[in-house]
Fold these 2 entries.
Entry 1:
Amino acid sequence: MLPSRIEERIPMTLAVRISTNEFVPAIETSFTENVSARGARVMTSRKWPLNERVVFAPLPGGFSTRARVAYCEQLRESNFAIGLEFLEPSGNWVVGLSATPERTLKG
């Protein structure tokens, strides 16, 4: 069972890029399932190690942050969902929702 969240996540699909450090480079472009000011759930095609530090950046956008892999859940044989906890947000993450007014998520 996953721990409860401090903030409610907003269901939203955004294109994102996740990359690891420069010593062992790995880059994956994928999509979020939901987001908040403190983190995101991202669909991925690979298993990510727990607590791995990554850089998370929506495409395109002026927001980027270092993040920690809080969990990696296997969904199907070759698909995973990772929970990312934002560690060092920089810039504003503006999220427009069709059903509600535009929101600015700040880290």
Entry 2:
Amino acid sequence: MVKKENIHKQISLRINGKEYVLKVLPEMMLVDLLRDKLKLTGTKVGCRKGECGACTVLMEGKPIISCMYPALKANGKKITTIEGLSKGVQLHPLQDSFIKYGAVQCGFCTPGMIMASKALLDQNSNPKLIEIKEALSGNLCRCGGYQKIFKAVISASKKMRRVK
């Protein structure tokens, strides 16, 4: 019988600007590495089927569903979670706008929505409503408050354009 510690694989990755070298089991998903090993619990676990978007993080700037992404595959990658957006107590414009527009609602979908929105705004600083809807189409809000979310993203895009 093979002991579990003998089948751990070592990976190195950069999460929110910090380097990590970790040993993980081959079957571990990225969301579990983030939440259980690193205690970055802002990334939520919803469906574990890649359907709700609650676990969305950015890998190399692109949104990924971390509940379906093997941790081993993240070796050598740069990852940003919701915890990596703020600078100390200074919230990212998306985080600030989600609060201002009441888009946080129950809060469960919020981290995934914000991360998907960040990926969009990094590529398109002035998206049309249809582009926002398309970018967030993989993220479900159980509260059904999509209009507040869309307004928050539009507001954040304006703030971010002024800052540049």
